Amino acid sequence: MTHPTRDQLITYLYGELDTESHANLSTHLAVCRDCKANLDQWRSAQADLNTWSVSPPMPTPARRWTAPALKWGIAALFMVSLGLVVGRSLASSAPNVEKFRAAVVPAVREELRAELQKDFQTALAAQQAAFTNEFRQQFREGLAEIASQTLASSSAETQRLLTQFVENYKADAETTLALVQKLDQQHRAEYANLLRKVETIAVVGENRFQRAQTQLGQLAAYAQTDFRPDN
Amino acid sequence: MRTSPFASITSLFTMTDEQAMWRVQTQDDAGAFAQLVRRWETPIQRLCTRITGDTHKAQDLAQETFTRLFAKRKDYQPGGKFSTYVWRIALNLCYDELRRLKRRGESPLEDDSEERLSVLENHDCGTPGPDGMAEAQERAEMVRQALMRLPENYRSVVVLRHYEDLKFREIAEVLDIPEGTVKSRMAEALTQLSRMLQPTLREDRAKAGQNDFLRPSRQMDRPERLLV
Fold first, then answer.
1. How far is B148 from chain A (nearest CA, A)?
2. Cβ separation of A11 and B10 shorter than 8 Å?
3. CB contact, 8 Å: A18 with chain B?
4. CA-to-CA distance for B169 and A219, rounded, in angstroms?
5. Most buried among A16, A76, B7, B207, using CB within 10 Å?
6. How far off is chain A from B56, nearest CA to CA, in Å?
7. What confidence category does residue B212 fall into, taking pLDDT thresholds of 50, 70 and 90?
């Protein structure tokens, strides 16, 4: 009994042997205790390995793309309300309002901008894929929307055009048919004519052939007469 | 059969990995890169988790893989398989991380409480009932530890063949070693893993008098013979 090599056995275990070798090895395993034991040992290790499943990573929030946009909205609102609040509360002490505004507002704006930029970049880096997907989806939906709208609005017009086209087509069809029939007739006439001519030639040819045959015969007789020794 | 009128537009978005990588390489195409990331981030993360034994570190390493993929896009050989390229980048990063840990004297097996928790939390088992679940989770943790006890080059083969289902030939390409070496490592790895994970079974068989089982794999003693 020749045993498989360890390499062959591991190849067999992972189903990478060719059909014939696989069948041969299966046959061997049915009768060889040692090789079977080896394989079983590996199979139990495989079963154990299968118990360790690694779950996919926490789904990255797909809607974070909208978060920066929302933040911008809130920021804008904040700026406006800040301006209003500052304006109202300091309306009495007019000289300092402008100074205050000049000092506070740019700083706040800059901070917000930096933060939002960071958010954008993070969201961009992480969500490029989601965005592409979403964009693709929206693009498709947008196109579908436009298409269906166009179709809906123009269906009445389309009906009219289609009807007209069918009418024209029918008219065209009848004209074409008449033409075809005329052509057909012409062809038939021509064919008949041609046939007659050919027949004529055949007859004429036949006559000429017969005449030629006769002449040849006469010539042959004459030639024979000429060469008869006792002439 | 109705086909979407926008099917031709949709087809513009689906490329092979090699086509996508070519676009990244030649045009810095962000969309193509995003597609590659989307397709590969989960498998790469799985690999990194199993090679390093650390789920959180694996996320960083996966991230690093794609960063490096983009940074070194000019190095990609357009004729080659993308999958081989990306597996190799990820593996090298994992090895670097393991070496770094070793230098710092940190073993992936020590102070594993966080990782144990992570495995237990993330373990995906279909068995109902608290007892069944706890047992399965414990088993998973044992497997993780057993894998971490294997030498790195054995572990890589196991992860690529058993978990990522690459053919032996593909693994040979990724690791740049002969296919025979891959198979030998796999065989030896499974043997060692079975010993580490099935002590009770071994004892039972010893009692039954099957001494052969305790010896190293018999095939190693026998001269190599061809299959008839």
1. 12
2. no
3. no
4. 94
5. A16
6. 10
7. very low
- CB-based contact A53 B125, cutoff 8 Å: yes
CA–CA gap between residue B158 and residue B171 (Å, rounded): 10
Both tokens of B167, joined, read 């053919």
pLDDT greater than 90 at residue B60: yes
Q: E strands along chain B, which residues?
A: none
Distance of CA A92 to the CA centre of its chain: 70
Among the listed residues B82, B60, B95, the one whose alpha carbon sits nearest the alpha carbon of residue B174: B82
pLDDT at B175 over 60: yes
Dist CA B35 CA A65 (whole Å): 17
As for the ipTM of the complex, it is 0.76
Q: Are B90 and B42 in contact (CB under 8 A)?
A: no
**A6 contact B CB<8A:** yes
Contact criterion met (CB below 8 Å) for B117 and B190? no
Tell me the per-residue pLDDT of A109-151, one tens digit each, with 9 for 90 and over.
787 788 777 777 776 666 666 766 777 777 777 777 766 666 6
Polymer length of chain B: 228
